[in-house]
Design goal:
The protein is an alpha/beta fold and 215 residues long. The chain has eight helices and eight strands. Helix 1 packs across helix 2. The structure holds D-xylitol-5-phosphate and zinc ion.
């Protein structure tokens, strides 16, 4: 299987958002990554359902909604009607991850958990079989354009081993600082999906940048 690429619209030109979303979809991306930040869980504030519904309208590829918020259930319910393929929430910020996973699935959406750069994949041992995806952060959440934290490679290997040991059907996604320099290492570590914001959008040729990650 080829690496799937989910460009993050965080680095897009928001004054021209629907064209920017269309451009990555026409450029061959696999998913459209939407970063929702509430100004509390992370020191940044992004977009809510009004803007994300415009993104959903422009997108011809499924949405991958990454919640960086304090009140996960409230935001899951806010975005559910837009029918994203994935909704991921931060493990660090959820008291009842097992319950929220079931709730997301009951809405017809694939549930995913996000681990911050310090997060140990082995902590997911007893919920890995309930998840469709685990997102490993390779930067601290909050901003685009940060430097890749290399320990994510070892964490991806650990997560891959856990998935195999538990016979789970759960994909591995990595988010932050991904580019053509680290993509092969990520592939070798067993990563299935990469998020790339600045690497795709800070270029003149989105399609070429997306293709360079579909290894
Ligand atoms: C960071 C976000 C990322 C970010 C990635 O909190 O979750 O999705 O937009 O941007 P780059 O690829 O520029 O690191
Ligand atoms: Zn993200």
């Amino acid at each position: 299987m080829k690496m799937q690429v989910a460009p993050s619209i965080l680095s897009a030109d928001f004054g021209n958002l629907s064209a920017e979303v269309k451009a990555i979809c026409d450029g061959g991306c696999d998913l459209v990554h939407v970063d929702v930040m509430d100004g509390h869980f992370v020191p940044n504030l992004t977009i809510g359902p009004v803007v994300v519904s415009a993104v959903a309208k422009a997108a011809t590829k499924p949405l991958d909604v990454h919640l960086m918020v304090e009140n996960n259930t409230f935001f899951v319910d806010l975005f559910a009607s837009l029918k994203p393929k994935y909704i991921s929430f931060h493990f660090e910020e959820e008291k009842h991850p097992h319950r929220l996973i079931q709730h997301i699935r009951s809405l017809g959406i694939s549930p995913a958990i996000v681990l911050n750069p310090h997060g140990n994949p082995d902590d997911l041992e007893y919920i890995i079989n309930d998840l469709d995806m685990v997102l490993l952060m390779s930067v601290n959440p909050g901003f685009g354009g940060q430097k890749f934290i290399p320990s994510v490679i070892e964490r991806a290997q650990r997560l891959k081993a856990l998935i195999e040991r538990k016979n789970a059907s759960c994909l591995i996604e990595v988010d932050g600082g991904v580019n053509d320099k680290n993509i092969h290492q990520l592939k070798e570590a067993g990563v299935d999906i990469v998020v790339a914001g600045s690497y795709v959008y800070n270029s003149d040729d989105y399609a070429a940048r997306i293709k360079s990650l579909q290894v």
